[in-house]
Amino acid sequence: MAMRARHKIRAPRKALDDFDTSWSTLAASLREIHTKNASSLSFEELYRNAYKLVISSRGNDLYECVKDLEREWLENVVRVRLAASVSPSLLLDRTPADTLDQSNNERRAAGERILAAIKEAWEDHQLCMGMITDVLMYMDRVICADHHKPSIYVASMCLFRDCVLRAPMRPDSDVSLLDVLKSAVLFMINLERTGHIIDRQLIRRCIYMLEGLYETATEEESAKLYLTVFQPMFIETSRDFYRAEGERLLQLADAATFCRSASSRIAEEGERCRFTLSPLSERGIQGVIDTELIEKRIADVIGLAENGVKHMLDHDRVGDLANVYVLVARIDKTKTTLTLAVQRRITELGDEINATAKTFSHPTPTPKLNESHGPGKKKGDDKDKPVNQQTVAAVKWVDDILNLKRRIDDIWKRAFESDQGMQTSITNSFSEFINSNARSSEYLSLFFDENLKKGLKGKTDSEVDALLENGITLLRYVKDKDLFETYYKKHLSRRLLMKRSVSMDAERQMISKMKMEVGNQFTQRLEAMFKDMAVSDDLSASYRDYVYRMGDQDPKRVELEISVLTSTMWPMEIMSSKDGTAQLPCLYPKEIETVKQSFEKFYLNKHSGRKLSWQPSMGTADIRAVFRRSDGKIARHELNVSTYAMIILLLFNDVPIGESLSFEEIRTRTLIPDHDLIRNLQSLAVAPKTRVLRKDPTSKDVKPTDQFFYNQDFQSMFTKVRIGVVSSAGNKIETQSERKETEKKMNDERGGSIEAAIVRVMKQRKKLVHSQLITEVLTQLASRFVPDVNMIKKRIESLIDREYLERISDSDPPAYGYVA
Amino acid sequence: MPKKIKRKYGLFNFPPDLKPDPGDELVDALTGLFQKPKYSDLTIICGSHTFKVHRCIVCPRSDFFARACDGKFKEASSGIVELHEQPLLVEKMLEYLYTLDYTVCDQLNPVTEDSTKPCPIQPKPADTDDNLTIVTTDGASSDYDTLSFHILMYSLADRLFIRGLKALAKVNVVRELEQRLNAECFPSAVTDIYNSTPPHDRGLRDIAVDTTLSHLAELRRKDESGQAALPNSLLKQIPDYTYDLSVSMINKRTPEWGFSALDFS
User: Is residue B141 included in any domain, yes or no?
Assistant: First the structure.
């Protein structure tokens, strides 16, 4: 075969016994690398030599020889050189920094020298080992695979660690270079913390070295020298530093400064870890600050009487509060300390607002009010004023709360990052102090009343909307929504009947807002009231048509505008007399009576089976009046008066000039209830600007013995004169006794609601354990009011008595059954 | 002894409407650079031969060249790498780096002209008809043993850290070895394998052992001149080989392994 003749390319034969020769050339070259003369060496040649040794199975020997060579180099050259650049000051002075500046400077200079030397030695070593590794690439592969040894690079790094850093620098002391390095770095960090400028780059380089060296040859992350050797000491000294810092700041600075310092310390340390030390320490050092500066101190800082959180809240220090928030959030997810402080302040401020509202209502001595009520007499103006003042106070109370709310919300948004938990706490605080004012529902309703009557004039739609929205926010806090509903209904009915609302749009808007907030059930009756008003308008119009078609064209005929109200939807109590006695219908003058009967006929014709009951106390009338003054002039005025006042005035049509009617006469001829009669006479004969009648004697009170004259000399700048009825037309704060009345009614109504809820629940469940029944009833009613548990128990008893429910005998825990 | 390589197969002959594979495009472009001084930034000297090569092609593929060029040694500054190797071996190695293949073909060798086994180079099936010629400038035949050449290529690839070439050489060795189970080639191939690779590198050594075990009878049979392909002297001469063989045989004999071993009668 052709091949046989051919000569062959022979593989290199095994080199026998020339290891020493090869090694000594290689070793010489490696030394050249260390002395930075590599550029004259041929990589290929070195590589080939090393390869040959490995291929002839001497790789392991080569590995060990290289290691020895490195050890020797590090011990005899590198370490000696470094030890020489350690100045004595570094060895002696081992306590950090608070000595004189000069020695500080000296020490820093010495530290920088040694750091620079270490850094250089390290970087040289890395570089040289990189080159040597390149040369020994083939050996590394074989050694690592066959002998499970670390690569020569790793091995030489371990040598650097042990022979340079860890070994004692001098035979006579056990101080190692690593100790010197650590204390120099820590010293510099302390310098920087106290405001000096240091060479960050240099330190970072040395830290790189500690990060690049490991305790083990396997190089686990957690075995970095940085983590095992440097970090613990760093954390320790930092802890000491910040412990002292916390104490110092608390003594010297106010809360705002404290928080600012703490924040900037946090930022500084973060930056230090990123640029000077290692990001590995960031978490650790932040933990130190969190413990030493925040956790241990923040409660004190927040509570500082003069400038703590209270002060910040009062002076809208949003920036400072934001600082506090950020700090607290670091240590506590729920931010309890801060939340409590804020809550405390809100409650305090809320209590102040409550107290102010009270002092407004207190100057009017309550007992007198009680006395004056009922058959007693109201004393005109001086009574009127305080009541008005109270109304003002109620509105002010709401305004104050809204202002406080706005302020706190603003702080919450800008300083507390709209924190969810804090919002809940703030809401709770508001709800707490708002409900601690027993009259909150009434005040709030008055606030709406006031605004819907006057406050909305000249405001844009969006302003109106915002205003109502604010009110609704407070409604959210009010627990007894049913009480609010009662008041709102009462106030609304007056607004509707007396046409006092500025804008029906706003009224409707309000209703729909409440519907969204509290629910359908809540606004049902309010909406029914609006519906009645609309139906009444139509009714009035068709009645007018009816009269027109009847052909009764009497020009003197009284025009009628009527509101027909469904009695269950409207708060009838404000229309009936207050003492609750059955009220006799008053006697209407003839012309009015005609119209009344005509309307009744008209209405009952349309809706048979209904009963109309007339409420003169809620109506008004326009009267044209002629005054023949004593100076001969004739004055005409249009008077807008209450229905009662109209009845009274019409009496005087039949009284000759100069003659009078006595109180008694008026009463018997009209049958107007005393209470209303007195009030109407007061506004007709006593109120200074609307004195259409003259009273004898001239006093402020109306007494049964008084005589009344038609006042021909009545004067007014206006053609139209509106004569309000003293203390009845407006919506005002309730007097104490009115209040009791309302409460009593409220309780009755709640009783009903509770019973209804109990029956509803039981009907569905048939059998239920007592405690569960209570819970279900509570949840069902929660949107309207918070029922008293005792009340629920009483109601259950009563339902058992009436055989709607039964006790289930020998059941434990106690349970009830539904009796169908 | 630079050689001209004429390749007639490939993309250049495709009809214009057949679009070439972009991968081929790259390979062809690189192939075009082979042995061209254009863009060359590295010189490889090998005895009297000089190869102009491109760092961006050789360095990413070979840790050896990468380190030679990246380090601070003489090579990095001079841009010259001296290799103490057979020039032909180096040339084929470079050919691989540029073309992803290398050719060992001997026109004077009738065996390689055989239609069943035309050439160690295996072009793509479509190209089987294409010719591939190596012409030496001095006219001398390329006078070497193909099997030995592949073994040495394997060793070189191992030394220079060229993984792809190593794998390719191994495939070639396997195929060649199967053809040369005779007294002349086999002992020297085994010797080459055990001399040119370190013990940890099992690639060729396992092939030698496996081939031996699966052709034991054939290898032990003496030929007309009284020579066996696997003489006792070989076993004595290369202890590593003998060791590997016996371990392998023991493993095969071990009953748990469950397959019947070869009969050594």
Answer: no
Q: Is B38 on the interface with A (CB under 8 A)?
A: no
A164-202 pLDDT tens trace? 888 887 777 778 888 888 888 888 888 888 888 888 888
Interface of A with B (CB under 8 A): 1-4, 6-14, 38-48, 51, 54-55, 57, 59, 130-131, 134, 137-138, 142, 145-146
- Domain membership flag for residue B124: no
Domain-located, residue B220: yes
Domain hosting residue B47, numbered range? 3-99
Neighbours of A439 (CB within 10 A): 20
Contact call for B71 and A47, based on CB within 8 A:
no
Note the pLDDT tens digit of each residue in A21-35: 888 888 888 888 888
Asked if A430 and A444 count as a contact pair (C-beta separation under 8 A), the reply is no
- Angstrom distances, CA of residue A475 to CA of A441, A495, A657, A788: 8, 20, 56, 20
Domain count of chain B?
A: 2
Sort A8 into a burial class: Cβ within 10 Å, 0-12 / 13-18 / 19+.
middle
Domain final residue, candidates B99, B134, B165: B99
- Is residue A577 helix, strand or coil? coil
Please answer whether residues A564 and A532 qualify as being in contact, where contact means their C-beta atoms are separated by less than 8 angstroms.
Answer: yes
DSSP H helices, A642-735, are 643-652, 663-670, 674-685
**Angstrom distances, CA of residue A518 to CA of A249, A429, A446, B46:** 50, 20, 18, 95
Whether A569 shows a pLDDT value over 70: the answer reads yes
Residue that the structure tokens 């008077």 belong to: A639
**Does B74 reach chain A within 8 Å, measured CB to CB?**
yes
Which domains are assigned to chain A?
19-223 (1.20.1310.10), 298-536 (1.20.1310.10), 616-722 (3.30.230.130), 736-818 (1.10.10.10)
In which order are the strands placed within the sheet that holds A660-662? Answer: A660-662, A707-710, A693-696
Integer-rounded Cα radius of gyration of chain B: 21
Q: Which residues of A touch B45 (CB under 8 A)?
A: none
Residue B149 lies in a domain: no
Query: CA–CA separation, A279 vs A93, rounded Å?
Result: 29
Which pair of tokens denotes residue B233?
């002297």
Q: What is the dihedral of CA A272, A276, A278, A283, to 10 degrees?
A: -10
Name the token pair of B250: 């023991």
pLDDT digits (tens, 9 = 90+) for A603-628: 888 887 887 777 777 777 888 888 87
Do the Cβ atoms of A7 and B143 come within 8 Å? yes
The token duo for A179 is: 């100790």
The one-letter code for the residue type at A566 is T
- ipTM for the predicted complex: 0.76
Give whole-number Cα distances, B75 to A468, A489, B48, in Å: 86, 100, 18
| CB crowding B234-257: b at 16 or more within 10 Å, else e | beeebeebeebbeeebeeeeeeee
Number of Cβ atoms within 10 Å of the Cβ of A307: 18
The full DSSP string for A368-384 is HHHHHSTTS---HHHHH
Of B99, B127, B143, the one marking the end of a domain is B99
**Helix/strand/coil percentages in chain A, nearest 5:** 65, 5, 25
- Residue A465: what residue type? D
Residue labelled with tokens 């002297």 = B233
